[in-house]
Amino acid sequence: MKQVAIVGGGISGLSVAYALEALLVPELSDIVLFEASSELGGVIQSDMWQGQVLEGGPDTLTDRPFGVLDLVHAIGLAHRLIGVRPGAQGTLVYGSDGWLKFSGQEARAYTLAGGLAELPHAVASHLMRTRILRQARVQKLSWDTRGRVRVWWERGVLTADAVILAVPAPIAADLMRPLDPDRARRLEQILYQPRAVVTAVYPSHAFVDVRVYTHTGFMTIKGAPLACSGASWMTTKWNYPGARDHVVLRTFWGPPGVDPSPWSDRELIDRHEHDLTRALGPHQPPEFVRVFRHPYAVPQVPSGWTDSQPRVPYSSYIGMVGPFFAGAGLSDCVHRAWQEASRVTEWMTASGTGIG
């Protein structure tokens, strides 16, 4: 019987656990998932203010094959799906010449009525054979005398036959170094750019020029006199249930423009207001603002980078999932998680040895 440890309780780690349970592998004894914080979901961060959904991370579930919408349907969350608000116009582009329409094709998209944080919570509630440990930061990994992996965390040590790292590449590199230094060096090649999101709630008539926020948002391009990389009108974009007494607007700070990490929350809010005034004109101040920060928001994967998994004389499986493999979208992460779960299943079924 095999025991699996999953490091990371974001959507990738939770999806691996769900997929392993769904595959009904007889060789699998149990799964232990370690999450360093008190909350599941990783970059998915939702909040509420007077019935208004506030998103601090991704807000979109994209309709792609074998992706996140399949997971939503599998866990019985489809009744919570909502689409783009009827009549909402597409994304705008803001540049040195003012407003332009976005020329790209926008994919069919959905969100969840109570915020995307409903998704990780629902996945966790469907895990019957997975033990979730919150506030359980994994400190290191090592081999034991039988070639299994010892998972050292703040309150003990667990020995596992298979370990799936569902954490950002720099953290995975630190954990991988005692097990496979070459693989750790490859992970160190992946750099991250931080991002911050300022989500603000305004009175429904806060902005004089209402033509702009009949669109779902805007993105800035080179030459634009703005520091933010774009904005999204959540109450225009999504057909949330309930009354619309407020306008929820969020701006994005980070690549390809500035590094927001040195700025305090107050500085970010001031810059948010400055850019909105410049783009939309004078407006009433927000009634509520929250700043969300993502230090590992955008992985910069070198061209041609691959994660080879060499076979070494140990009877354990070491796998990895996350947005640096095949795309940063939630569908990409879920798809990759199912692929990794299938690889673990094949390894268990074959009772093979080695990594990969």
From TrEMBL:
<dbReference type="InterPro" id="IPR036188">
    <property type="entry name" value="FAD/NAD-bd_sf"/>
</dbReference>
<dbReference type="GO" id="GO:0016491">
    <property type="term" value="F:oxidoreductase activity"/>
</dbReference>
<dbReference type="InterPro" id="IPR050464">
    <property type="entry name" value="Zeta_carotene_desat/Oxidored"/>
</dbReference>
<dbReference type="InterPro" id="IPR002937">
    <property type="entry name" value="Amino_oxidase"/>
</dbReference>
<dbReference type="Pfam" id="PF13450">
    <property type="entry name" value="NAD_binding_8"/>
</dbReference>
<feature type="domain" description="Amine oxidase">
    <location>
        <begin position="102"/>
        <end position="343"/>
    </location>
</feature>
<protein>
    <submittedName>
        <fullName>Amine oxidase</fullName>
    </submittedName>
</protein>
<dbReference type="Pfam" id="PF01593">
    <property type="entry name" value="Amino_oxidase"/>
</dbReference>
